[in-house]
Amino acid sequence: MTGNKEQAALPQPAAQQVGYAVIGLGKLTLEELLPAFAVGRASRLAAVVSGNLTEAREAALAYGLSADDAYSYDDFEKLGERDDVHAVYIVLPNSLHREYTERAAKIGKHVLCEKPLATSVEDAEAMVKACKDAGVLLMTAYRCQYTPHHWAAREAVQSGRLGQVKLLHSVNVQIEPNEGQWRLKRKLAGGGSLPDVGLYCVNTVRFLLGEEPCEVSGTVHSTPGDERFTEVEESVTWQMRFPSGVVAQCACSYGAATARTIDVFGTGGRLAIDPAFDYQNLRLTVQTGQEVTEVRVPPEDQFRLETDHFSRCIQEGRAPYTPGEEGLQDQKIMEAIYRSAREGGRPVTLERFEGRDVFRGPAPERS
Ligand code: NAD
Q1: Mutation test of ligand 1: which of 139, 182, 196 has the most ligand atoms closer than 8 Å to its C-beta?
Q2: Ligand 1 atom 20: the closest Cα is on which residue?
Q3: For the segment 148-194, what is each residue's pLDDT rounded down to a tens digit?
Q4: Same domain, yes or no, for 56 and 162?
Q5: What pLDDT, on a 0 to 100 scale, did the predictor assign at position 8?
Q6: Which of 6, 55, 213, 304 is the most buried (most CB within 10 A)?
Q7: Residue 60's domain spans which residues?
Q8: Ligand 1 centre distance from Cα of residue 128 (Å)
Q9: What is the pTM of this model?
Q10: Residue 57 maps to which CATH number?
Q11: Alpha helices, DSSP H only, in the chain?
Q12: At which of 111, 143, 175 does a domain end?
């Protein structure tokens, strides 16, 4: 593995690419991540880890690996003997992120971890520390921060094209079926719609502004009698205030038909991304005066962009754009929103940070 930069669209030779072991073979892995690795430029799939070895072997064979590249959770530590596995990608229920991050750090593997980074501030802090102590990189898998449409929106916000930004509004709602899955169990998910889908609103608002909120307030609501919401909440509405005076109003739910939007309002215009958080077909429009322009960006696989970014960070020994600290900060904000809701919606003050992008690494490459 070297730090050679590949030509624009050409993948690096396989021997130079960063090899990943993907942990967890659920929906996201099978439908999005394994196909994204197949078109990776700096990244390649090297192993899969699952509770079901038969399924793991099937997935390994389907993606050009051998049956020996499939591991059970109990055999995870055997990855430590594999020089061609440089990193793990954790795609498990949220409460397992800490355990597998710590186990990976112990065997010297870099960690790309799905969002939310953890189910508590305490766990997220332990994960950041474990990776730091072991000298491995930790990246929170915030695909939206590697997405061209989101970068185009950030540039419109930060260049002054909208004048002075005053308000943001973001919604992420979907209907969560009652399939006995982990998302409705507090112990595994850590919460309901907020850490699962509301997190996109928290994170994208912060990304677009480059600022950290200094105060949040929120309310939580679950439909009485709906058995899906005995352990976790259905809906959350919240407000985030920023030191510059910008205010963001957000909402998430497990009880409404899919909608994923973000709107930014400034003194000179507005922008909208709708849909904002889907894997494909995002749509960004900017309005200044009477003129509405759709900003067209060539489609890219968000998961490939995100994974290739982490691979280049590993190859070049630099901090990822969305390191563990970026996920930890969202964890702190979500805990403050829950606290506000428990205390009748009273505003909760957050630690104040000066400067821009305080938790982010150097800006990612765009290909
Ligand atoms: P999933 O339910 O489809 O898959 C979870 C996997 O974990 C399965 O292979 C399951 O067998 C395994 N597992 C191990 N221990 C388990 C346990 N105790 N209970 C239940 N399953 C267990 O989930 P998913 O949708 O693939 O989500 C996995 C992670 O990825 C979550 O952290 C989620 O928030 C995240 N995610 C991120 C995105 C994104 O766009 N970045 C999208 C979907 C999911």
Answers
A1: 182
A2: 182
A3: 999 999 999 999 999 999 999 999 999 999 887 899 999 999 999 99
A4: no
A5: 59
A6: 213
A7: 2-143
A8: 21
A9: 0.97
A10: 3.40.50.720
A11: 27-28, 34-38, 53-62, 97-106, 121-134, 148-158, 186-189, 193, 199-209, 302-316, 324-342
A12: 143
